[in-house]
Structure formats: C-alpha cells, structure tokens
Specification:
The protein has 243 residues and is an alpha/beta fold. It contains 9 helices and 10 strands. The protein has a 5-stranded mixed sheet with strand order 2-1-3-10-4. It starts with 10 loop residues before the first strand and ends in a 7-residue tail after the last helix.
C-alpha cells in the first residue's frame, strides 16, 4: 500500500502596521515565525489612516498596529478590532538635507525653505501640527515662528517614509518625522532636535482584528510585541516603552 503524502499547511498571519514600524516589526515577525513553525507573518505597512480604511471596508487582517490612538479609536468605533493596548512611544525630530541651508531649528522659519510634512490625516502629520501649535505658545518661539514654519510647507505626504524619502533625495529642504525613522536616515540627512517640552504624546496602540481567522495567533503576536523581547527590538529601532 503506497504511503500517504501529507503536505504541511502554512498559516499566514497578516499584520496591518503603521509605516513607521517598517524596520522594527519584520524582526519581531521572524522571531514569531521561529517560535511557530508553519506560520508566516505577512506585513502591510502604510499610513494608519489607510490601514483603518481598508479594515472598515472589509480587508482581511489579524492584527492592527496604529501610530496613534485616533485611528485605533476609529477602528474600535467601526467594530473591526478588539480591545487595543499601548506598545510603544515615539517622538518627533526635524530632518534636513545636507545640501540645504537648514542647519538649526530657527532655519525652519526662514523664507524659501521647502518643508514637507505628513498630511493632517496621517498620525505623523497630526503630531507635527500639534508640535507647532505648542511651539507657538512657547515664549521661546512664539506664534510668529510657528506660523512661518507652517507657511513653508510645500508638500503633504501619506506616510512618514515619504517625508524621509523626499528630504533624502533633496526634493525638500527639511521635514518632520519620528525619531525612530531618523535613526535609519540616509547619511546625507541631518537631524535637528525639537524641544522636548513641546512634544506631543506619541503612543502606538495594537489590537486584534475581530474577523481574524487565527485569533489565538493574533493574541500571541500582540503578546510578543509587548513582551521584553519585543520591547528590546523596538528599543533598538528608536522606540521607547509605552506608558
């Protein structure tokens, strides 16, 4: 009697994750795959607002990791995710092309500077505008500085990676991105620190998708992200522990 050929089935765990997690999450995914033979982790990295819209329209995923609470709250309100948990913090920095005249924070307000931000619907864009509003109330800068910086915005991007790319290619003089993205910036891009007292609270939440075909695996992936092992990976890529 011929032996039966048994084919191993492979389970795909789909993780919708904010674009700023593009460097860190694949390493966590590899650790998860190593601990779960037969499981492949597939990532979809885009702006949180795009990922939430996909979920609301019925896209199939198992985990949603957002760069801000706003789009996670939208996903909860749309009934597409379970209870979210915080897993990381971030901060904002300014970056400047080495070929530009932008070398200090005050240079961002000079006329003719080409500044790129994420669009307001994108977490990094909303955070950047909150930062500028706070700097406008800060006596060290004032409303004139914040207004001048805002007037220099020449482009609004769909995710933080697009901002980093435009500055890196010299298509813009400067931009505002996450500190985690600046940690892997091109060599010819400079970092300009932004005042810590004016920084918004940048907290990343993660949640299981209610329609997941693998809810147990989804919960285990979330647990890994929030574990000491996952937090160490995130720390190496410029993130801080969640509150």
């Amino acid at each position: 009697m011929p032996a039966l050929l048994i084919l191993a089935t492979n389970t795909v765990l789909t993780v919708f994750a904010a674009a700023s997690l593009h460097a860190a999450f694949p390493e966590i995914g590899k650790s998860f795959e190593a601990a779960h033979p037969g499981v492949t982790v597939r990532f979809d990295f885009e702006g949180s607002q795009i990922l939430e819209a996909h979920l609301a329209q019925g896209a199939q995923a198992d985990v949603f990791a957002s760069a801000d609470q706003r789009w996670m709250d939208k996903a909860v309100g749309d009934g597409v995710v379970g209870s979210p948990l915080p897993f990381a913090k971030n901060s904002l920095v300014a970056i400047a092309s080495a070929d530009s005249s932008v070398r200090t924070l005050s240079d961002l307000a000079k006329g003719g500077v080409r500044l790129v931000l994420c669009a307001d619907a994108v977490p990094c864009g909303r955070y950047a505008r909150q930062l500028l509003e706070s700097m406008g109330r800060d006596p060290r800068f004032g409303p004139a500085f914040a207004s001048a910086v805002a007037k220099n915005v020449v482009s609004e991007e769909e995710d933080v990676e697009a901002v980093l790319a435009k500055v890196g290619l010299g298509e813009a003089d400067a931009g505002i991105v996450y500190g985690s993205d600046a940690a892997r910036k091109p060599a010819h891009v400079r970092i300009i620190e932004l005042p810590s007292s004016d920084q918004p609270q940048v907290v990343y939440p993660i949640a299981p998708v209610k329609s997941s075909a693998s809810p147990t695996l989804a919960a285990e992936f979330i647990a890994l992200v929030r574990s000491d092992q996952g937090q160490e990976v995130l720390r190496r890529f410029g993130f801080a522990p969640a509150p």
